[in-house]
Amino acid sequence: RKLGAGLDDLVPNSSLTHSRLKGILVGLRAEGEEGKQLEALTSLCELLSIANEESLTAFSVDSFVPALVTLLNAEYSPDSMLLAARALTHLADVLPSACAAIVHYGAVNCFCARLLTIEYIDLAEQSLQALEKLSHEHPVACLR
User: Fold this and answer.
1) CATH 1.25.10.10 correct for 14-143
2) Where along the sequence do coiled-coil regions lie (predicted)?
């Protein structure tokens, strides 16, 4: 029993994850409220970093990816761009089926733009990692 104590907080269950994901999505879409967006991005990155495909059954790729791509273009906030890139990278790693949506919503062009004009080295490195993960599932999209 002691070994399993506290693991419930680390390993998300589906009902907790669903309500948590709804809150995160609301935060991502909070235009003009950078603090809420950063908090939501941080939570999403943490969740995706420990998630697996089974724990993300409630994850709506078509809701999250456009919001993340929008934040990837948030020139006013380097932290938002970095965390959005990190979330998309984690998502491509944990949920390979999400790669199609990531490509569809235009993230490849955003990642390439971050490499063509390197203003923030962390963002450029994260963009490169994301492109590498996407290239496994969609190599042609990464060559355009």
Assistant:
1) yes
2) none
